[in-house]
Write a structure and sequence with these properties.
The structure holds 2 protein chains of 2 kinds. Chain A is α/β, with parallel strands linked by helices. Chain A contains 9 helices and 13 strands. Chain A has a single domain, classed as P-loop containing nucleotide triphosphate hydrolases (Rossmann fold). Classes of the chains: A alpha/beta, B mainly alpha. Chain B: This is Iron ABC transporter permease.
Chain lengths: 274, 343
């Protein structure tokens, strides 16, 4: 047994464990007659403990990609696997144990306390009536600490600011204790400070908890500075690499139409054309 | 910790109030029976008054138990609907479940003569009314569910529920135009609502179906809490939305449908009790809400029934009028006092 653990550690040290993998994935919408392909030939690999940003222009298909990766929407072709198992082989409950989400949609009820909301993250593990065990309490309190929202614990969700609510939603996803956390535009509606705060928090969490965190965002400057890996979606291709390599390749130049803004390779950010 | 807060004191208080209301309900009526004799009679001792004994055992006790079942059952079905549709206006009435029952009953009572002769007398038994009402409510709920799968907007679902109400009343109008005065009267009296007039056997059947409905509701507590986050989050937490939704709807139609079948379309309780409970307990956790709604519903219904009996007089008011007359001001007062609706 110990030898196996050793072997596993040895293997993972040399070859980082792949949490999410796609092979020749094609995403889009299929009705009875027409197939609308949004992007194809998507080959990405996300490793343990990585913070990964997904960037691209409006309407390029970021949400479609995230929906396909989370099995909300069916893929058109190719493979998506989590921990080496095809995503369609997971039951609802087992998928909930490896993948947690933070969505853009608002909560159904904001009359829950912060603690209650985060506790709902333990649902895949609790009994039929949802009772929390001592371990559940420990995990929830740890999540409160990791996201710096201890003092909000007893507050109702309708009392929170957008920034605070986003932290609470991240804590809820953490409490679900999954290898992979996917966030859909976690920085929308936030001010500049809180945008940076949330992404910095995600970076810290990926390191501390060794979870893989994938988020879509329009904050390209911040993503370049904070992410280990970036997935850049343009009209023709989906590229995945480290931010510095992407800059060298000049991928960001093709991100938007060139009439208004240009990417400054030295600064690593966009500028308005004079 | 708030999550483990068990609200022991309020629950003990509510249970005491429930017992008090239960005895008061049995004791009050056209003939007033002292508390002590009610108690003696219930625990099996002789009260020394044969007619009191008879009134308590054959009339008031089943009526009080029916009140508890009706109040708690409608309250809980309202709670389930409000959470499932994430809409504070939802309830058995608004979504047309009760209208479905009414239509079923109208068809049986007033349409029976169309079948003529012996068949008619078979059809207009209490049981056929019960079955028709249950089928009616289940059909409407199923249609609402199918539509709600296609329509994303919850407001649209409410409007569709109201449309069912219109279709029902229109159909009832057409039916009543062709039916006899006797049939019409029978239907109208059913529509007033009543928790009395149930035999022990009928009460037994009502209780069995009610118990199944309550058990399914209890088994849905976790799903209901998860649904508070919204359907996409609920799914990401491993909830099987389709199964849970079906179970919640089955529980609702069993509860609301059967209660409407036996006691008539009782207004207001289903919509108001969950709001009252949320305002008072200030929580959305169904582990607390479900038992609290049960108690509040039962207590409210017992009080309303006691008032409807007009103590010390021979008159009985329609229970439907009382539930709204008593309940509506309470809800308005709660909302105005807290200035914020808990949902």
């Amino acid at each position: 047994m110990e030898f196996e653990v050793f072997l596993l550690e040895f293997m993972t040290k040399n070859k980082p464990h792949i949490v999410l993998k796609t092979q020749d994935l094609t995403i889009g919408y299929a009705s009875k007659k027409v197939k609308t392909v949004i992007a194809s030939n998507i080959n990405i690999e996300l490793h343990k403990g990585e913070l990964v940003g997904l960037i691209g222009a409006n309407g390029i298909g970021k949400s479609t990609l995230l929906r396909t990766l989370t099995n909300v929407q069916h893929k058109l072709d190719g493979n998506v696997s989590i921990n080496n198992l095809p995503i369609e082989n997971y039951s609802n409950i087992n998928l909930a144990k490896v993948l947690s989400l933070v969505l853009t949609e608002s909560l159904g009820s904001k009359n829950l306390t912060v603690f209650e909301l985060i506790a709902l993250g333990r649902q895949p593990y609790t009994n039929w009536v949802g009772n929390l065990t001592v371990d559940d309490f420990k995990i929830i309190n740890q999540c409160l600490l990791q996201t710096n929202i201890e003092e909000l614990k007893h507050k109702k969700c309708y009392e929170l600011s957008d920034g605070q609510l986003q932290k609470v939603m991240i804590a809820r996803a953490l409490a679900q204790d999954t290898d992979l956390i996917i966030l859909d535009e976690p920085t929308t509606h936030l001010d500049m400070y809180h945008k940076a705060y949330i992404l910095k928090l995600l970076q810290k969490l990926a390191k501390e908890t060794n979870k893989t965190i994938l988020f879509s965002s329009h904050e390209i400057d911040l993503a370049i500075q904070l992410c280990d890996t970036l997935i850049v979606m343009t009209k023709d291709t989906v590229t995945i690499d480290q931010p510095c390599n992407l800059i060298e390749k000049g991928v960001f130049n093709d991100l938007f139409p060139k009439d208004l803004i240009v990417f400054d390779n030295k600064m690593g950010s966009f500028r308005v054309k004079k | 910790m708030p999550y483990t807060k068990t609200y022991k004191l309020p629950f003990v208080a509510l249970i005491l109030v429930l017992f008090l209301c239960f005895f008061a309900n049995i004791s009050l009526g056209s003939v007033s029976i002292p508390f002590q004799d009610v108690f003696n009679s219930l625990i099996g001792n002789s009260t020394g008054n044969e007619s009191w004994q008879h009134i308590i055992h054959e009339y008031r006790l089943p009526k009080a138990i029916t009140s508890i079942i009706v109040g708690s059952g409608l309250g809980i079905s309202g709670l389930l609907m409000q959470t499932l549709f994430r809409n504070p206006l939802a309830g058995p009435f608004v979504l047309g479940i009760t209208s479905g029952s009414s239509l079923g009953v109208a068809l049986v009572i007033m349409g029976a003569s169309a079948f003529g002769g012996t068949l008619a007398s078979v059809l207009v038994s209490k049981w056929s009314i019960v079955i028709a009402a249950s089928l009616g409510s289940f059909t409407v709920l199923l249609v609402v569910l199918i539509i709600s799968n296609r329509v994303r907007d919850t407001m649209a679902i409410l409007i569709i529920g109201l449309m069912f109400g219109s279709i029902t009343s229109a159909t009832v109008s057409v039916l009543s135009y062709f039916s006899s005065a006797e049939e019409l009267q029978q239907y109208i009296f059913w529509g007033f609502g009543s928790v009395g007039n149930l035999t022990w056997y009928e009460l037994f059947i009502l209780f069995i179906i009610y118990a199944i409905g309550i058990l399914i509701s209890l088994s849905s507590i976790k799903a209901l809490n998860t649904l508070l986050l919204g359907e996409n989050y609920a799914k990401s937490l491993g909830l099987n939305i389709k199964t849970s939704r079906l179970l919640i709807i089955i529980a609702t139609s069993l509860l609301a449908g059967t209660i409407t079948a036996f006691a008539g379309p009782i207004a207001f309780i289903g919509l108001a009790i969950p709001h009252m409970t949320r305002q008072i307990f200030n929580t959305s956790n169904h582990k607390i809400l479900l038992p609290a709604v049960f108690l509040f519903g039962a207590i409210t219904m017992l009080i309303c029934d006691s008032i409807a009996q007009l103590p010390s007089s021979d008159l009985t008011l329609p229970i439907n009028a009382i539930t709204s007359l008593i309940g509506a001001p309470v809800i308005i007062w709660l909302l105005v006092r807290k200035r914020k609706m808990m949902f």
